Structure formats: C-alpha cells, structure tokens
TrEMBL record:
UniProt enzyme class: hydrolase
Entry-linked SUPFAM superfamilies: Carbohydrate phosphatase
Domain Fructose-1-6-bisphosphatase class 1 C-terminal per the UniProt entry, residue ranges: 269-392
InterPro entries: FBPase_C_dom, FBPase_class-1, FBPase_N, FBPtase
Keywords: Carbohydrate metabolism, Hydrolase
The protein, known as: fructose-bisphosphatase
A Pfam family: FBPase_C
Record family assignment: Belongs to the FBPase class 1 family.
GO molecular function: fructose 1,6-bisphosphate 1-phosphatase activity
Superkingdom per UniProt: Eukaryota
Catalysed transformations (reactions): beta-D-fructose 1,6-bisphosphate + H2O = beta-D-fructose 6-phosphate + phosphate
EC annotation from Swiss-Prot or TrEMBL: 3.1.3.11
Residue ranges of every copy of the Fructose-1-6-bisphosphatase class I N-terminal domain listed in the record: 85-265
Length: 405
C-alpha cells in the first residue's frame, strides 16, 4: 500500500501540453522498445495534481514483489511494464487505447455541451422508455469502437449497446466485451457513471467458422477465462480500476498530465462491511429470503452484530467501487444486469480483491453464458456478507414487472 502526503501549492502550475489525451501508442508504432526507457518521475513534481505537491511513500506492507512500482509515481502504462505486472506488449497496446477512449468519455460526460448531444440524436430500441439507449450511450460506444479498431489488437467487440458483436480484425488476439456507459440515465443530474469492460483471448480454434458465429461464440466465454477486466468511474475523480489476474488495482486520472496514476495498489475488500446497496423500493417484489436478510442486517441481528446502513446510487460502477473500498454488498436481485458485460468483469475484479460475485446461488465466473444479452440477479461484495446472504436461500427476485423509474 502507498501512503500519500498532499500539500497545497499556491501557484497552480499546469503543464502547457496541447495533446494531453492523445493515445501514447498509435497502432502503427512498433513497440519493441516499450519498456526500455521507463519514464518514472520522482514524487513531488509541483505540476502533479494541478498545483498540489504530492508525495507517495511505500508503507510497510507495500508489495515486496515490486508490483506497485515502489516509491515513485507510477502510471498505468508503467505499471503494465517490467517493474509492474509485466503484461504482453499486445495487451498493453490494447489497454492504452482503452485508456484513451475512457479519457474521451470522461471529458464527454463532464462537458457543458453533452446535453446538446441528445438534441441531434433520435434513438430507437429498448422494450421500455427507461431501457432505451441514451444518446451518450451511443457516442460512448462509438468512441470505444473506434479506439479498439485503431488498436489493431481486437478480433471482436461485444457491447451492451449493440444487438450483435462487431468483428474487427481476423488476427486480433483479444475479445472485448463492454458496457460503454453504465448508469447513463443519471447523467443529467451529474451523478457518477462508468464504463465496464472484460478482455478474453480470441479462441483460435474457432477461426474457421463464419464471422457471425465465431464473433458470438468468442463473446460468450465464461468469466473464468477472463484475461483482464476493468471499470472506469466518472465521478469527482475519474478512476480506472483493473485486474490482469494478479490483484485489483486502481489508478486515478491526473487531469494535468492525462495519466492514470496508481493510487490504490492491491485493493483488499474488507471481509465484511456494514453497508448494503440495493433499490429497496422493490421490497414488496422481493422473495421472502431476501426480505428476511435485509430486515435482519438492518436491525443488527445478523452474524455481524452491527446495524447495516443503506447506500444506493443506482449506478452500478459507483455502487461497486464503494463496496470494493468499504465492504458490504452491492446487489440487484432481479434479472436486470448483464452477465457478459457487467457481472463477469466486475466479479473478476471482486474476486481478485478477495471478494465474491454471486447470482444468489452460484459463482458468477463459473456460469456459462448462453445469450449475449443474458440478464441475471447480481450480488457483489465482501465474502462473509455474500455467504450470509446466500444462506437465506431464496434471494433472487422472480417478479420483474418492468419498472418505469
Ligand atoms: O432499476 P434498478 O433495478 O435499481 O437498476 C439500476 C441499475 O441499472 C443500471 O442503471 C444499469 O441499467 P442499464 O444497463 O439499463 O442502464 C445500473 O447502473 C444500476 O445499478
């Protein structure tokens, strides 16, 4: 873990860069030398955090293997290199393009112009008014699609916003599944939103199949085959939280340099929390087991003898991010969230942080998706809380009348 000392520098010192958000690794650039000259900056540059002096000190329990970059400011790109988790160059290129896409989405959701986007769009689809894609969903989807195309590393992209997966490159080593802008109906009130993505290897044994078929089958891989996953939270800070299969780590966007900087190495979810997160206006549609569980923990009569508190933003990435840091359970007990685009990537991050992802009965990552847009009940969080919840048996909401709000 790192500890930080932050002091205010009265002279704001933004670097005069014109290309803050350009991808660092254009597709065409050969990357043989990617890690040869690490660009570590020593701590305390006065420009960092737009005028804050910031020192990072490795604390006693800092990862001895050095995978948190030790005592220096460490960007996501650096972290992926030799002194960090040492992912393949191909995965690093893909991630740098995803990073770029998410910076663009971050700028978009914070832009004073985003409310105008709705006026120039008409969006169809969705079974109810609330299920319709919003204009920003479509724009975010296009941003990610173009970044993935440019990366040259992706065979197929399957997005929550598209009816079918998009085949991009026969020789792309990866498959990307994503929800480009989760919680977008919160945007008009400036409530946090997020992007979620999961990355699989392309299944080369399917290469001979027709494009449509191999695109679908590649995208329907079970969550335990994930190579990496991540979410990006667009909130008071823009945070990219990721796992490459060796722990869960979060990076915060430094708007003054355009870098995602490692701020939460090796996140460990508390074994138990004291917060439950659910839309409890649905209480009367819940099964008896779930009602009993929530009634019990609210009163402090559960296995953890403390009264639980409720927090519900109604934006999955934000509710999950808080749960990862503080512990407890983030849940949506009805068939609403998607296995492929949301439940699998977030369960991977939860497990890598010592937590769990469950549908109320089974481990999410062990489920075999049968449909791209398959929905299911989702419970994410602290291992002891999830275990206690599951012991109530009947926690999946079967009544799903289609809520207006
Ligand atoms: O209406 P509910 O059941 O509270 O669902 C809220 C959940 O739906 C979401 O908005 C996702 O739904 P969409 O994919 O339809 O946008 C999550 O961000 C949020 O956690």
């Amino acid at each position: 873990m790192c500890s930080a000392i932050v002091t205010l520098n009265p002279i704001l010192n933004y670097p005069s860069r014109t290309n803050l958000f350009k991808p660092k690794l254009p597709n065409s650039q050969p990357r043989l030398n990617l890690w040869a000259q690490p660009t570590y900056r020593m701590a305390s540059p006065s420009s960092f955090l737009g005028g804050f002096n910031y020192r990072i000190r490795a604390s006693d329990n800092a990862n001895a293997s050095g995978d948190d970059c030790g005592n220096v400011i460490c960007t996501l790109l650096e972290y992926m290199g030799k002194n960090g988790v040492n992912v393949s160059d191909e995965l690093a290129v893909l991630f740098s393009h995803l990073e770029y896409a998410c910076k663009r989405i971050s700028a978009l959701v914070a832009s004073p112009l985003n409310h105008n986007i709705g006026k120039s769009f008409s969006v169809s689809g969705g079974s109810s008014e609330r299920d319709k894609a919003k204009p920003l969903d479509i724009v975010a989807n296009d941003i990610v699609l173009s970044s993935l195309k440019n990366s040259g590393k992706v065979a197929v992209m399957a997005s929550e916003e598209d009816d079918a997966p998009v085949w991009l490159a026969d020789d792309g080593p990866f498959v990307v599944v994503l929800d480009p802008l989760d919680g977008s109906r919160n945007i008009d009130a400036s409530i946090p939103t997020g992007t979620i993505f999961g990355i699989y290897n392309r299944l080369v044994e399917l290469d001979h199949l027709p494009v449509e078929e191999k695109a679908t089958l590649n995208s329907l891989q079970s969550g335990n085959k994930l190579v990496a996953s991540a979410y990006v939270l667009y909130s008071s800070a823009t945070i990219l939280c990721t796992s490459f299969g060796s722990g869960t780590h979060a990076f915060t966007l430094d708007h003054s340099t355009g870098d995602f900087v490692l701020t939460h190495p090796n996140i460990k979810i508390p074994p138990r929390g004291q917060i439950y997160s659910v839309n409890d206006a649905r209480y009367f549609d819940w099964p008896e087991g779930l009602r009993r569980y929530i009634d019990t923990i609210r009163q402090g009569k559960g296995l953890h003898p403390k009264k639980y508190s409720a927090r519900y933003i109604c934006s999955l990435v934000a509710d999950f991010h808080r749960t990862l840091l503080y512990g407890g359970i983030a849940m949506n007990p009805r068939n609403h969230l998607r296995l492929v685009y949301e439940a699998n990537p977030l369960s991977f991050l939860a497990e890598q942080a010592g937590g769990r992802g469950s549908d109320g009965k089974s481990r999410i990552l062990s489920l075999q998706p049968v449909k791209l847009h398959q929905r299911l009940p989702l419970f994410l969080g602290s291992p002891d809380d999830i275990e206690e919840l599951e012991s109530y048996g009947d926690v999946q909401q079967k009544i799903n009348p289609g809520y207006e709000v």
